[in-house]
Amino acid sequence: MNPTIYTIILLSLATGTIVTMTSFHWLMAWVGLELNTLAIIPIISTLHHPRSTEAATKYFLTQAAASAMILFSSMINAWNTGTWDITQMSYAPSNILLSLALALKLGLAPAHFWLPEVLQGSTLPTAFIIATWQKLAPMSLIYMTMNNLPSTILLMLGLTSSTSGGGSGLNQTQTRKIMAYSSIAHLGWMAVIASIMSNIMIMNLLVYLMMTTALFLSLICSKSKTIQDTATTWTTSRTLVIIMMLTLLSLGGLPPLTGFLPKWLVLEELIMQNLIPMATAMAMSALLSLFCYLRLTYSTTLTLSPNTLQMKVKW
Fold this sequence. Notes:
The protein is mostly helical. It is built from 14 helices and no strands. Its EC number is 7.1.1.2.
């Protein structure tokens, strides 16, 4: 792609997110979300390959449907309350519709099926943008409306996302699909805590963004598209292998590392709110994700390429 066009598209992407994050009127928030969607479509379809075209089409359809649902819910609210203010969502049916629309926008289960397909059809840098930057605008809308969103729906969405994200990642060999399911599982943790304590949700989002950025940059540097590729990363850079190992274990939420802190605080807060069955289910679902990350860690750091079968050394 022409560098000038690429720069304009990236600026449009940034503008869309900033417009949504800084708006108080539902129409402006919708404009920001649409700008975001339209800017990422050419980035996904730059390869001119059937897989990337399919991914761009799937992404466009799901995001357009979610944006339309958001606009529809805000119109119902404005019709009943007389205000377009984002923080004044007081009509119950529109709140339910909004939470489902944001779930579709983010890729929370059970509306998560588009995310792994889209990431698999994109290049690694594009998948990185979709898994990180594209989550900011919908999360900011959740942050602004969380006092009115139905907490039961958010808790259920969070639990199903965490479970399906961990379980579905177990039988994957493609790193982009593993990262997609990782994103679904982490967003589940954020959805669970959103209606209880917003500060922990923001911290969870920031930690997720940092760790996912680190891992995606490692995968881009080592050109690792499958688990088989990660086993030969040591031939490129030993330091990169150590960084990948620590990042993967941190994403899994092992105690001495950064990724454990948000999970710990979420579980503590759930227990404080007397949601002990929910806390137990979330902790059990984290084990599924951890197994997935440990398998990737094992193939990256604990196997040396010539000693394993069916591996091709990079040099």
